[in-house]
Amino acid sequence: LSVPSSGLLMVRVIGKDVPLGPQTFSLVLSGSDLVQSNSSACSSITCPKNCSGHGTCLSNAVCHCDMEYGGSDCSRKYRTLEEGENHLAVTANGMSFYTFNLTHGNSFRIICTGLGPSSSSDPDYYLSYESLPSLGEYLDAVMDYGDAANFVRNQEQGGVWVLGLYARCCADVEVLVVLEVREEPFASPQLSPCTFPCDCQRYTQSEGQLEDGSGLYGYDYANCRWIISPAAVGPLRVSFPAFALASGDFVQLNECLDGLCDSSVALATLTGSVSSSSSFLAASGTLEVVFSSNSAGLADGFLLKWISLGAFDVCEPQCNCGIFNGTHGVLTDGGGGTASAVGLYPNNAFCHWVLFAPQASWLQVSFKRFATEFSHDLLQAKECDDIACRSSRAIGAFSGSIENLVLLSTTGIMNLVFTSDASGQDRGFEAVWTSSLLAESGYLPSPSLPGRCGSGYRCQECSSPCHCQVFSSWEGVVTDGSGNHALYENLASCRWLLAPLNAANISLRFNFFETEPGYDFVSFFSCSNSSCLDRTALKNFSGSWTGHEWTVNAGVLEIVFDTDTTVRFPGFELAYRAVANPRTSSAFPCPLRFRNCSLTLSWQDLVPAIRSGRAETGGLGHLIIPGVYETWLCWLDHPCSETKPDGSTDPFCFIYSEQEMRFEPWNLNSAIGMF
Questions:
Q1: How far, in Å, are 293, 473, 593, 657 from residue 653 at the CA level?
Q2: Is the backbone peptide bond immediately before 197 cis, with ω within 30 degrees of 0?
């Protein structure tokens, strides 16, 4: 069929299931496809099949399909993801969608495992709600982490959920997807990465067992992970009643230093066979188990059993383990070593102490000596909220030779565990622990609440008894450490950092000051941040000063105390008080979506709401910044309050600026827990 040289020729190309990415195609025009029409007919082309009743025809004659339908005419319904196993496939560089309906308030778990067929397959997974996911828009995704993924969503919104499967590179992909739906939340969400059928998860029972998942593990490239974290406080013992792995396949045991196992130390790497009589002890009470396999061979796999022991069940007798209740005391590894003499702690030791100073605002452990086999014999310390340490935060794990080691708990409770391996020993440690109660009784200078060392600051460069540290509280006292006007040490080298959060300036005053004139100095430096690597010299003091007070226009100060080899004086006691800059304070961060929330009422206007229980107010407690932020208020009827899934109201909360005399937006009560 010949085409006239003049006139209008309209060619329409409609993509149908075109894979993502640049495509090469040819356009073949046959005579049977040509329809001669006038120009007005060409401009009124309609959507194919009128979108099959499952979409909207747009002005450019392209169908915008309903969420569960696709194709150029919206005639193809996306496959439904069924509960249980689903075997899915997608072509290279393509994305396919799978939908399922969820009843409001139910929970679901999706476990995805790539099945190949080639080692170059690399599926990515995208999850969305009431919309189709894309590479740029999705609710949750697992991308570029091998071929496995899992999603856990508890008590979610009802409606249509969509799983997108993208064959990122470089071949067609087959995937096994397991969907599980139930009314109650998943108590032990799966851990990623995890390949089917490991059933990776977190266990909180005091005793139990887990296995690789399939008897004879007949799958290549397994990548599985479990965390055992019993609620009971005490060490965790694990054993393997059955263990047989092929060459190149491993089980790695890691002792976790925190509940999420973001920080851990290697306990053992196992392969081949392990005796059923062998056991492994995780002193922290939390263990990570990682199983990996290659494609070289198969074996019977493993069965692991664990039991949580009592806090002091396996303690070395010479350690004198136990709970120590008081204001101060002495702590040693029990080996009898000194700074110069050898007295080695035993191999395979396990020692456990809980230091508890009732109603103390802080508890501090200062080590006279510390020397253990580096990276093998560890002292682990945690700050606890109760004696059982059910709620805690890791202070750190320490090994090797450390000078002037000081540990701090701001709750007055500290949990300490010392473990050694089967070989290698050293002189161990000896420490003295004190608390705020001892300081308040007059035996020590009363310090402000100390803070931990900031990242990069030189806390280790400190001579005894200065107790160099970072002070993050808004007011406090710094001393040379000698106490009760006693004489400080010769050749002292001490430094402290004053770094209250977002301080605008710091006022300083010597309660007393006596150093050897012209030889022993206290020096002050301003810093731009808590690392204090770019400090600027301000003032030097030597001799006698009393009642001298001044203010430094800086938010971070470093104080350095240096003495020479002769003549000692009573030293100094320095009081400080910081003032915050309310316009830059991030002590109470407000999410971006709430920045425009405002409250212009006065306290008097809010009295009826407070009396009726629709609003509540109180003090900020340990979050208080004196003279700046002292009080909070949450209001159920504020426009920024939101409705929770259970239908109750989540009140919006404000803090009150004492300097600006106004309410400033903070956050929903569910995020800060004030109401």
A1: 51, 24, 14, 13
A2: yes
